[in-house]
Amino acid sequence: MRQSDDLGFERTAGLYGLAYTFPMAGWSGRAAIAHDPFLYSPRILGNAIDVTSLTFGAWGKAAPHVRVETNAGLGDFSDGNLRVSADAGAWYVWTWPKRSLSLGGVVRYADYSDNLDTGYFDPQNWIAAVLSLRSEGSIGDSVWSYETAVEAGTQSFTLNDVDASGEFLWNVHALVARPLPHGFSFQIFADLGNSSAASGPGYWSRSGGFRVRWTIGS
To answer: What pLDDT, on a 0 to 100 scale, did the predictor assign at position 45?
Structure first.
């Protein structure tokens, strides 16, 4: 991946990731590792900060129409910082032959070991509680599929010994995908929101792109 800023500074960095999904006592589990440049602000480009992330998640049905998900992660930053994160949520799920709709709530937590002031938001005790509406399924009679999510809630955190609480939070996510031969799929995605964990207090962020994903064994 090549990055460049308005001053002409360029940086080439490698991206990689691997995820493994497996059955787990009637539920499903997922373990993943990823390495990325930390795309957060123009300032962070000059600091050349990368993050290697380890995550583990589990999800399954707690009742016939209730889906529960939980995740935990560790982020190791090239500037010496560490991030611990976790989330848990539950959704009531309505299903139809070609799509589903889910309504529920999620609690998220993140904590950084240090506030290094190197161009990204690294708070202590960031906690968000949100309502979540999600849908996924096929698009008409085509081979394309979609997933969407809308969230709204509040977030609280401590930064530079200053506490913030009850800050409004919203996020929107959309993705469409088309299967390709030999386990590959082509995906187009977009994300928009004002979560301080993604864009910093008082800002909102947008991102999007496309990717090809390979699923081994499919």
So the answer is: 58
Distances (CA, A) of 162 to 123, 124, 129: 10, 10, 20
The kind and range of the H/E element at 192 are: strand 184-193
Residue 135 lies in a domain: yes
pTM of the predicted model as reported, rounded to 2 decimal places? 0.82
Beta bridge partners of 215: none
Question: Distance (Å, rounded) from C-alpha 179 to C-alpha 160?
Answer: 47
Using one digit for the tens of pLDDT, what is the confidence trace for 100-149? 999 999 999 999 999 887 777 888 999 999 999 999 999 999 999 999 99
Closest residue by Cα to residue 42 from 141, 128, 119: 119
Which residues span the domain enclosing 134? Answer: 23-29+59-214
- The CATH number linked to 203 is 2.40.160
Q: What's the rounded Cα separation, in Å, for the pair 88 and 72? A: 9
Q: Are 209 and 178 in contact (CB under 8 A)?
A: no
Q: Is 117 left (phi over 0), alpha (psi -120 to 50) or beta?
A: left
Alpha helix positions (H), 82-171: none
Q: How many domains does the chain have?
A: 1
* Side-chain-facing half-sphere of 33: CA atoms under 13 Å: 2
